[in-house]
Amino acid sequence: MPNKMKKYTLLLPALVFLFIFFLLPILSTIVESVYQPQKGWVVGKYLQFFTQRVSRIAYTRSLTISLLVTIVALAIGYPSAMAIVSVPNDSLKSLLMTLVVFPLMTNPVARTFSWLAVLGREGMINNLLLSLRLIDSPRRFLYTPGAVFFGLLQLFLPLMIISLVSALENLPKEVPLAAKSLGANAFNLFTRIYIPLTVEGIVAGSTLVFTGCITAYVTPAVLGGSRVLMLSTLLYQKTSVTLDWGMATVIAVVMLLTTLVVNYLSRKISTLGVSKG
């Protein structure tokens, strides 16, 4: 019993840190979004958020782009992670993981601004299409949902690959071999072995990517501008332009609740899929 109490005591500094710098600010934001000392109950702000056309468009666009980025990142990241894990040479595997992690070491602002040189009217894509005579004049690729999508995908794809590599490395190598010896083809091996046994990595990677996408500000602001309004840029407008702090707290809580709901649904779906498998 004393040893168990000692273990819990060692957790106390981390719990205090999380409470002060994580839980307390979140609880304060949630309370402020429904009650303010000067105005009293302001629950109507939530109704106002969902009835305003601008807010609905920003919310729908943020949710759609974040889900699409998560799905595409999973579709690209899973084969990439399997390829990395299957490399027999440890030095080459370390090099590949370094290349995957390297974009995370670059400043997000610098990475986002590099897309201006690719998607701009004088950028790489327009110059290539013009040189091939596929277009007569430069096209607008910037300040579109597609630009925001590719920017976010490039930004958060490494998080998905890292999560899946970790999950696949914990998969016992004897399990796929046993399945092959019992006659499992590639499809059955993937759907009945790999996915069920790496579902935690899938959920973790999807949560990281979705949360990063729906809360990202620099990429939507630079690549989307005012034409592609998302929740993060709308939140910035409310705090810095219109100084509507009440609506800003509502937007922050909506972003938090959306992330929690999507994470919960992904866990339920993955659990249902594993049980059926």
If you had to describe this structure to a student in words, what would you say it looks like?
This protein has 277 residues and is mainly alpha-helical. The chain has one domain: MetI-like fold. Helices cover 78% and strands 1% of the residues. The chain has 13 helices and 2 strands; from the N terminus they run αββαααααααααααα. The chain has helices at residues 2-34, 44-51, 53-85, 90-101, 108-119, 124-131, 145-169, 174-181, 186-197, 199-215, 218-224, 231-240, 245-276, and strands at residues 35-36, 40-41. Strands 1-2 form a two-stranded antiparallel ribbon. Strand 1 (35-36) and strand 2 form a beta hairpin. Helix 3 (53-85) packs parallel to helix 7 (145-169) and helix 5 packs parallel to helix 11. The longest helix has 33 residues, at 2-34. The two termini are 41 Å apart.
Offer a few descriptive terms:
MetI-like fold; mainly alpha; 277 residues
What global shape is seen?
A: globular
Structure summary, number of beta strands: 2
**Distance between the amino and carboxyl termini:** 41 Å
Query: Given this structure, which CATH class is correct?
Result: Mainly Alpha
Q: What's the CATH architecture name?
A: Orthogonal Bundle
Q: For the largest sheet, list the strands in their spatial order.
A: 1-2
The averaged pLDDT comes out at 86
Indicate the structural class. mainly alpha
Strand content: under 5%
- Secondary-structure element pattern, one letter each: HEEHHHHHHHHHHHH
The number of helical elements comes to 13
CATH superfamily label: MetI-like
Q: Biggest β-sheet, characterized?
A: 2 strands, antiparallel
Q: How many structurally independent domains?
A: 1
Radius of gyration: 23 Å
CATH topology: MetI-like fold
Low-confidence stretches: none
Helix content: over 70%
